[in-house]
Amino acid sequence: MSQFENVTLIKEANIYFDGKVTSRTVLFEDGTKRTLGIMLPGDYEFSTSLKEEMEILAGNLDYKLAGEDWETIEGSGVFYVPANETFQLKVHSVVDYCCSYLTE
């Protein structure tokens, strides 16, 4: 899906790591939430409370889920982060992403 219809966009940005990672929250009529953002090159660690679908729309990064090996995405791809986990990212070029928060 390249665009969202009938959504609410939160104007205030989510800003992490001194502005190197930013996103905007998108709320859907059915109560689901996504964030759309940009990550600049760097090494990052995030924690989750809900299961997340990380859709990489463009860019180059390595990601590591807890207890797993490093994986690479070049261009576009998707990975899933279990709820209540920490994951690491090594961002090599500007990354455009969409994070979906899953309740299942």
Automatic annotation (TrEMBL):
Kindly give the SUPFAM superfamilies that the UniProt entry links to this protein.
Answer: RmlC-like cupins
Q: CDD domains in the record, alphabetically?
A: cupin_PpnP-like
Q: What top-tier enzyme class does this entry carry?
A: transferase
The UniProt catalytic activity note for this protein reads: adenosine + phosphate = alpha-D-ribose 1-phosphate + adenine; guanosine + phosphate = alpha-D-ribose 1-phosphate + guanine; inosine + phosphate = alpha-D-ribose 1-phosphate + hypoxanthine; thymidine + phosphate = 2-deoxy-alpha-D-ribose 1-phosphate + thymine
**Catalytic activity, EC:** 2.4.2.1, 2.4.2.2
GO molecular function term, any single one:
uridine phosphorylase activity
Q: Which family does it belong to?
A: Belongs to the nucleoside phosphorylase PpnP family.
- Name it: Pyrimidine/purine nucleoside phosphorylase
Q: Which gene encodes it?
A: ppnP
